[in-house]
Amino acid sequence: MLFIESKFSLFCYDLNLHHKPKGQHMKKPFLLSFSSLFASLLALASSASIAYASNITIDKSYVFASIPGSNNTAAFMSITNNTDSQIALIEVKNSLDVPSEIHAHTKAESSQTNSKTQNPHPSAHMIKIPKLEIQPHSQIELKPGGYHIMLIGLKQELKVGQEVDLELTFDNGETIELKQIKAIDRSSVLDTHKPHKQ
């Protein structure tokens, strides 16, 4: 942008050389008008970019460092749908070049019962889901013990402090890239997420 504005400044200067009687009155307003035009265009471009990005807001993203004996880990975040329509997360890619799956944490009734209440104990397990739906103007949180993105078949240990990039695709056509997500020790989070069996 500085290069383009410099070109316009030189152009204005040349015009003033060929119109000396009026140069002193024209040069400053002429340059100001072009500067104002560029400022307006930049502001318009920025506001358009922010408006597009604000359709979906993603924050609080983190990924668990892997644990010994496991080649799987999980990523978590909050996703906010700022639109008037339901959207769905349909695909996730990662910079580790391993499969990514959207998982839900469900509870199934066990045959064991409590002797006092006679209510069955729920047993938790994870299932793969084809998409994660987010209602209009609402937020859904991916967290331990709930929805999460599973990274399956890690080729090497993911250590605390290492970074992972994620690319999230939604059914409304939007793709959002999350850069440099830090791997953290799962003990630093209230962890009700049980590791998948290998």
Automatic annotation (TrEMBL):
Superkingdom of the source species: Bacteria
Pfam families noted in UniProt: PCuAC
Organism of provenance: Helicobacter fennelliae MRY12-0050
Name this protein carries in UniProt: Copper metallochaperone, bacterial analog of Cox17 protein
InterPro entries reported in the protein's UniProt record: LpqE-like (IPR007410), Lxx211020-like (IPR058248), PCuAC_sf (IPR036182)
PANTHER family attached to this UniProt entry: BLR7088 PROTEIN, COPPER CHAPERONE PCU(A)C
Bilayer-crossing regions: none
